[in-house]
Amino acid sequence: MTASKVLLIIIGSNTKLEGGLKGYEESLSVTERLSKTMAHRLAQGRKRMWKLIQDQTVTRDGVPLGSLPRNLGLRFGTDVGGRSKEGLYLPAAERFHGRFFTALGPEGPTLLTSAWPHILILNSLYGLLLPSEPIQDHSLHVTDHPRIARAWTDEDLLTEALLSYVEELGITQVLDLTAQNDYRFLIAWSAVRADVKSVLHCFGEQSVGPGFLGAEGELMRMLLCDYEERDLLALRAGQSIATSVERVYLQALPRARASSPREIEYVPGLNTADRLERMRRCTHGILGVLSDHTGWGQEGWRETVGARIRRLDKAKHIPREMADHMYYINHRRCQVVYDRRPVSQSELEDALNYYTDIREWARGQRWFKSKMLPRECYEIS
Predict the structure, then answer these.
(1) Domain spans, the chain
(2) Beta strands at 118-123 and 6-11: parallel, antiparallel or unpaired
(3) What are residue 247's DSSP bridge partners?
(4) Distance (Å, rounded) from C-alpha 202 to C-alpha 217?
(5) What is the pLDDT of residues 36-88, one digit of tens each?
């Protein structure tokens, strides 16, 4: 195991090599480098993602995730909390074959698995991966369903796993090469900055999102081949590195420079917090009326929104789609109010659409009485 104090974080890819070999080597899993408690929590997160793929109500473009070609061969193996021995495995560095990984060149898998700095891969199914960790072929995007991001961000699961790795390995420098905000913000970077001496995020001079992955891949190859430990530890915010594709800037905060292109535009924090809070209050009000109607109101108004949603959802008093909408609103509200994380315009629009669906669903129920809720709850735009 490398003694480096540097950790590079990248993301996987939807383009993957098929096939593999039977037999999962658990000793190669990132869970072996985490605390026992954290390893169990990460394993449970993977198990939830496997179950989500099997849920026929969760679809991509109208097709159930489990019916997608790459998911047909996915088995409930040890890697995702099961016992099946039929899964086919390849090291993550060999399995992933998207733009970032092809930019590393033909020696890419060897570079990643034998690298002297630490490397972790963010992935929707597995959460965190080592480049050498055996994984199955699969297709799961963090944007496929709100439950995916929620599974990894609730109770800061992925952040806590990352911090456990950092603590166990004595990391002092973290470089974020994730490129895409959908994955970048699965991590609460403020918590990482509080525990790590230096955290740097990479942004392109002319490209954002998936279009930036090629430059990130070339940058990764440069860092692994041309830099030494002391060079990476000497990197500072405000510096830039030129690749053949474009110049890459290092930032202390997870947002691009004012003069650079941005993946999404963020809405003002206070305005967002107010609107999301009103949506959450209305949702809580609707749940309170439903709880009283079903005789499940004994917990009272001190019960959190999340706990009440889980309870009523489990009892099938709320349609799963409405429960997912409620979770989304509650999570985004906590993201702004407590974590001070940015919420994009598109995320706010999604919350408004989900809120409208919740309101229309509630109005169609016999037990719902709108006069029991403040009028201001409905006037959200």
Answers:
(1) 6-251, 269-377
(2) parallel
(3) 242
(4) 12
(5) 999 999 999 999 999 999 999 888 988 999 999 999 999 999 999 999 999 99
Write a three-state SS string for the chain. Answer: CCCCCEEEEEECCCCECCCCEECCCHHHCHHHHCCHHHHHHHHHHHHHHHHHHHCCCCEECCEEHHHCHHHCCCCCEHHHCCCECCCEEEEHHHHECCHHHHCCCCCHHHHHHCCCCEEEEEECCCEEECCCCEECCCCCCCCCCHHHHHHHHHHHHHHHHHHHHHHHHCCCEEEECCCCHHHHCCCCHHHHHHHCCEEEEEEECCCCHHHHHHHHHHHHHHHHHHCCHHHHHCCCCCCEEECCCCEEEEECCCCCCCCCCCCCCECCHHHHHHHHHHHHHHHHHHHHHHHHHHCCHHHCCCCCHHHHHHHHHHCCCCCHHHHHHHHHHHHHHHHHHCCCCCCEHHHHHHHHHHHHHHHHHHHCCCCCCHHHCCHHHCCCC
Count CB atoms within 10 A of the CB of residue 119.
26
Strands 118-123 and 59-60, by their bridges, are: unpaired
**The amino acid at 270:** L
Q: What is the mean pLDDT of the chain?
A: 88
Interval 253-311: pLDDT, tens: 888 887 778 775 444 555 677 788 888 888 888 888 888 777 655 554 456 777 888 88
